[in-house]
Design a protein that fits this description.
single chain, mainly alpha, 4 helices, about 5% strand, extended, signal, Lipoprotein
């Protein structure tokens, strides 16, 4: 049995060394990567196509998971919100704290009204296009199934 372990150790070490060299060839630019590319174990990434470079921003900004995005609150409108009047079981508790700071900057309501009117106009356009497509689909007769002669 001791002879088997003496034979297995060099094979295991050489396999680990070969795997390490192969992984090093893919890791970074250097002499190992050049050799790995020459024998076909590593590749160089291709440059992006022109349409990809044109449509994607050069600097991608990712928002990490778990971060909160600061959002400006909506400015108060002409009608103030109703006063908090606790009822039922909540009458035993204090008034809830506001979600946003009242002194923080706010977004004007006119911006949201403009967005709302544009979205409603787009909705009407989409509904009209859907009705047109539905009318064209109803006027078209479906094709007849293909007639395949029996193979017997």
């Amino acid at each position: 049995m001791p002879i088997d372990s003496l034979v297995k150790k060099p094979l295991l070490l050489s396999a680990m060394l070969l795997a390490g060299v192969a992984l090093a060839g893919c890791a970074a630019d250097g002499p190992v990567k050049g050799t790995a590319e020459a024998i076909g174990m590593a590749t160089t990434p291709q440059e992006a196509k022109a349409f990809v470079r044109a449509t994607r921003p050069s600097e991608m900004e990712y928002i990490p998971v778990g971060t909160t995005i600061p959002v400006a609150q909506l400015c108060p409108g002409p009608n103030p919100p109703p006063a908090y009047t606790p009822s039922g079981q909540s009458a035993h508790f204090a008034a809830p704290k506001p979600l946003v700071d009242p002194s923080a900057p706010c977004k004007p309501r006119a911006d949201f009204k403009g967005i709302q009117t544009r979205l409603e106009a787009q909705q009407k356009t989409n509904e009209a296009a859907g009705e047109t497509a539905k009318a064209l689909g109803a006027a078209t007769t479906p094709p007849k199934p293909a007639q395949i002669p029996p193979a017997n």
